[in-house]
Amino acid sequence: MCHIASPSCSGSFFFWVILQSLSAYPAPERSTIMLFSQWALLLTVWMLRVEVSSFNLDTQNVMNLRGEAGTLFGFSMAMHHQLKPSDERVLLIGAPRAKALPKHNANVSGGLYRCKFTTQSDDCERISVDIKDHREKQWLGVRVRSQGRGGKVVTCAHRYQDWSFDNRRLLGRCFVMEQDLTLMTDGASTRTICKNREPEKHKFGYCQQGVSVAFSKDNKYLVYGAPGAYDWTGIVHMEPVNDFSLETYETGDYNQPQQKLISVDISSLLGFAVDTGMNLMKKGELNVVAGAPRSNYSGEVLLLRPEENAESRNLKAEYILQGPGLASSFGYDLAVLDLNGDGWDDLVVGAPEFSNKSMDEDVGGAVYVYINQPKGQRWKQIKPVCLYGKRESMFGLAVAHIGDINQDGYQDFAVSAPNEDTGRGRVYIYHGSAAEFHQKPEVLDAGVPSIKSFGYSLAGNMDIDDNGYPDLAVGSLSDSVQIYRLDVSYIHKIIDSCDITAQSCFTYTAQTPTYNHKLRISYTLKADTLRIERGLHSRVVFVNPEAAQGYQELSEGKQECIQTQLRLLGNIQDKLTSIFISLSISLPSNNPKQTIRNLPGLEPVLNALQEHVTFRNAGCGTDNICQSNLQLKYRFCTRDQQQDKCDPLAMGNDIPVISPGDKNVALEVTVTNKGGEDAHQSQLFVTFPEFLQLSSFELKKSTQDQVNFNPNENKTQAEFQLGNPFKRDSELFFGGEVKDLKAMKSEDDIGSLVQYKFRISNVGRPLKSFGSVVLNIQWPNATKEGKRLLYLVQNLQIKDHRENIIHCMPADAINPLRITKVVPSGDIKLKNDHLLTCADDLRCVAIKCPLEAVDSTTDVVFHARLWNNTFLEVQFSLNYLDIVLDAFLTLNATLQNIGMQPSDIKVKLTVFRERKPALFSRVPWWVILLSILTALSFLILWRFYFFLHRSKKVFFFFVFCVFLFLFLCCLNKMLRINN
């Protein structure tokens, strides 16, 4: 089900592309060569791999916070940054078994504490959540979450009981507070989603709301887990934070609740853990991730999407991830974050009760890391990376997104193992990277023998000491919390990063002079928006992702500014186009009911602003436009590994000839940029035929740090990262006997496969609905005599970047014969020229592919077969032919001021005659037997010849010669038939 990803390495090689014909070696020698190559590669990787390991968290000066004994102080935590009445960073700590306050009518109710970051271990104050209701053993503080900078706070009590009926109902409830931890007005603080609903056990009588809770990533919704609903099937409930004009959603449908709509069975505990993401399945779409640790006997995780129609408000399960191992509690905790910086949210899932006796070492818990794929539509095909804990350690009981603690531009996460080390507990920290994440973790110990179950809860992803780096808080079951701050002096810079400061300033003016109310706005910053819209990776990341969105209060006529830090990622390819940073603002509705009643409605103000960061290219001249002069030279040669040289191959009619005795055939490629300016994002694509296997490649010493090599799995294609796009003409070999259509039962009988790929990119402004683009192709279908040339065999249905299907016309151009009719044979005469075009020698079909509004990049792929019979029947003395295909774009615009630059291209396909080496066929057994019998007959006749009379010898000799001649003719005829 899962795999362990290997660490990425980089090395330096000599720029040779080695093509090794393994068939030239005997089997034992071939095996030895392959084994030696593998060990040489491993040795090279080991020699070139350099690990830089550093631990940024200060383990010497740990801040300790302690609560009253037996209160479970630290059971849950959240870092919070309030802006009013004063700018202050605090740690919110839940103690679900704390004694009730004196004014509360209860003994043990649980509590919420607000702790400052000082050296005093008891610098915490109790927050009074004053509710006139039954509070006994409600476990207030079982969960606490913060909305972020200047946002709201929610805390829950999942054992809250409702005494309004004869029987007690275990509903659970949550409280939403302002950023200063005061209750919201108009009764909007108390949230009890199962109140006034069917009280039965198989309905909503034992919801236990608040076992898990999370703010949505867009800060508009609150997501609750209620694992006790529907006989502990569980539900996930999503409702607005304060803008009640938004809809409410729920698994099983909020408007018309139906248990059958929930994708898990009873006793699954759906909602035991919840989190949200905005880039899980579609960019900018809100999705909910919920754990059901008892579903299907091992645990499952559901990826939910809000589904809305005229009557339904359902959270529908789009994907279900299944956990391995019986009773592993897969989905006990989970976290959504972007580990590899590709702009798509990844998923970390804990399974603390996983065990496997068949493994080399007993394991006690596991964590599964799902690295999202582009477009987020392949969750079922993703093989997670598995991390295992030690025996009985409960590894994965808590997982948390902790921000970028090592400041390498990638997000990190922490995993707890509270039962490890005989119950003392440990915390493991994993760092994100461009290649998924680093599997070698950093380890935290409590350092205090009295602390038990260290790591039972985790909180991070916020800078608490205001030094610009995120910190980590670790809770336990010993009524204590340890806070680890990042020690800047331990940071090892791996790359020279570039920090960018984006300053956003806001102000508003009122037409009425007496209007001086404070205005609260919501803002969102997005970086490298143009690349993200085209489906590419962003080149910058926010140092603190939470700072990319938030709230700001404005006074009339007074300007307020915020600064947001961004960091440029290392090893970026695109250093030419600007980095656009967009800012969108809106006016949130704090109390729509009061607004509608007393004031005219305020429409949300949406104002998208953009600034950009421009790269300064010293090698591109004063106009900042690179005028490069890329040139390519290549030659085939035989590689002498002993003397490190390459001897050119023999040439036949200006074509390299590869003999069976040539063991190491190399393709030497030289790319130069003499007299030109810097060439960015250049690439070299090489395609190899199947009979020449790609063995290895080397780089010259002067280019070791400039070229990256990426072959495909079957070593038939290779991509070299050099700079700006550069492609070679394709080459194709043909051969085989001539077949009529009746003998062609499959596409392979037609001839070799040819693939044309056209990539259309819009680097200007989006067309949207103002125009559409059509791809026009003059397809070389046949020769002048009607002989088929390039036969289209695959349906021309392609998809653009939005997965919209594009239909090319005419449809009857695809496989029109259905391989049922015989093409009439005849002599074909082509002019004695290398080049065949639609204008002179070919019959071409006009194909049109409407691309509609091209706002990004679209790939159009054509699959065809080279009609082998035509080239085998044609009589021409050339060794190769060039077939030219014409393609161009046309624009259909509704406005006259929309234009497009000319885009005509010619694609050349070179077709070679196949050179077959001389082969010796095996002689049939009957030929050998007949030859032996004939030889014996001749021998007997020859011996009988000496006993004849002299007058009869002449006649006998004549008959003997005629018989021998007829025998040789028959033998030659039979051998021809056999071959």
TrEMBL record:
Residues 1-24 form the signal peptide. Its main location: membrane. InterPro entries: FG-GAP (IPR013517), Int_alpha_beta-p (IPR013519), Integrin_alpha (IPR000413), Integrin_alpha_Ig-like_1 (IPR013649), Integrin_alpha_Ig-like_3 (IPR048286), Integrin_alpha_N (IPR028994), Integrin_dom_sf (IPR032695). GO terms for biological process: cell adhesion mediated by integrin; cell-cell adhesion; cell-matrix adhesion; integrin-mediated signaling pathway; leukocyte migration. FG-GAP repeats lie at residues 196-248, 316-379, 381-439, 440-501. Residues 730-913 form the Integrin alpha third immunoglobulin-like domain. One of its GO terms (cellular component) is external side of plasma membrane. The chain crosses the membrane at residues 923-942, 954-975. Residues 496-611 form the Integrin alpha first immunoglubulin-like domain. It is a single-pass type I membrane protein. The keyword Magnesium does not apply. Keywords: Cell adhesion, Glycoprotein, Integrin, Membrane, Receptor, Repeat, Signal, Transmembrane, Transmembrane helix. The keyword Acetylation does not apply. It is found in: Membrane. SMART domains: Int_alpha. GO terms for molecular function: integrin binding. Belongs to the integrin alpha chain family. This is Integrin, alpha 6, like.
